[in-house]
Specification:
The chain is α/β, with parallel strands linked by helices. The protein is built from 7 helices and 9 strands; from the N terminus they run E-H-E-H-E-H-E-E-E-H-E-H-E-H-H-E. A hairpin with a 2-residue loop joins strand 5 and strand 6. Helix 1 packs parallel to helix 2 and helix 1 crosses helix 7.
């Protein structure tokens, strides 16, 4: 797909990877529909996209709430006259061990609230946004592209029962949707980042960061721009569908 003048929806667009995605596609000449719960963050990203010459609009919505998602996508279609692409990037973490024990006594465990919050945003949110984008793309009869952001943690990462389950689900949805939607000219791909420099890591202690990077062959964090580059590749390569790009510096969990 040539993304010039195409309308691309980005969820979780208010900062980090979402912001880098918006910057990249704005520089490539796309129209941007930006979704996040962070209104001020969205506005800053929208302004940055317009400074690059792109047409951009912000939509404050919680991707885990069906009515907010359907409303946002209907508004996007009205605003831009259609939807050509979606990057399902919105996600949260609520890390905890399944159970934490000391001297044979359980002293902590992952709460249902921690589990449900991550599943709601990272998996259900991906489903809802993907469903709405696909509906608009099929009705338009001009195809489209959906990119889902998974994670290296989909292989199973201690302390992330909720996150690993959600991101494994996101990778599976990618395959299912690629098979279901190919007949309509809609391609679906995924990216599984490894450890990436985002605002979440800004306050990490140097010793903790060094320990995190120890198993990474390239011995560095990925950049949000490198993830955006991978998303642009999926959009631009019309023979790519149903696959996940592991962008992890060689890390294996």
């Amino acid at each position: 797909m040539d993304t010039r003048h195409k309308t691309i929806v980005i969820t979780g667009a208010g900062r980090g990877i979402g912001r880098a995605l918006a910057d990249r596609f704005a520089a490539d000449g796309a129209n941007l529909a930006l979704i996040d719960t962070d209104g001020p963050g969205l506005e800053a990203v929208r302004t940055g996209c317009e400074a690059r010459g792109a047409e951009a609009a912000a939509f404050v919505a919680d991707v885990s709430r069906e009515e907010e998602v359907t409303g946002a996508f209907s508004g996007i279609a009205r605003r831009f006259g259609g939807i050509d692409g979606l990057v399902n990037n919105a996600g949260i973490i609520r890390d905890a061990l399944l159970i934490k024990a000391k001297d044979g006594e359980v002293v902590g465990k992952m709460s249902l609230a921690q589990w449900q919050a991550v599943i709601d945003v990272n998996l259900t949110g991906t489903f809802l946004c993907g469903r709405e984008a696909a509906e608009h793309m099929v009705k338009q009869r001009r195809g489209g592209v959906i990119v889902n952001i998974s994670s290296v943690s989909r292989a199973g990462n201690p302390g992330q029962s909720n996150y690993s389950a959600a991101k494994a689900g996101v990778a599976s949805l990618t395959v299912v949707w690629a098979k279901e939607l190919a007949r309509y000219g809609v391609r679906v791909g995924a990216i599984a980042p490894g450890f990436t420099r985002t605002p979440l890591l800004d306050h990490m202690r140097p010793d903790a960061l060094e320990k995190m990077l120890a198993p990474v062959p390239l011995k560095r964090l990925g950049s949000v721009e490198e993830i955006a580059d991978a998303a642009a590749f999926i959009f631009e390569n019309d023979f790519f569908t149903g696959r996940c790009i592991d962008l992890d510096g060689g890390l294996r969990l």
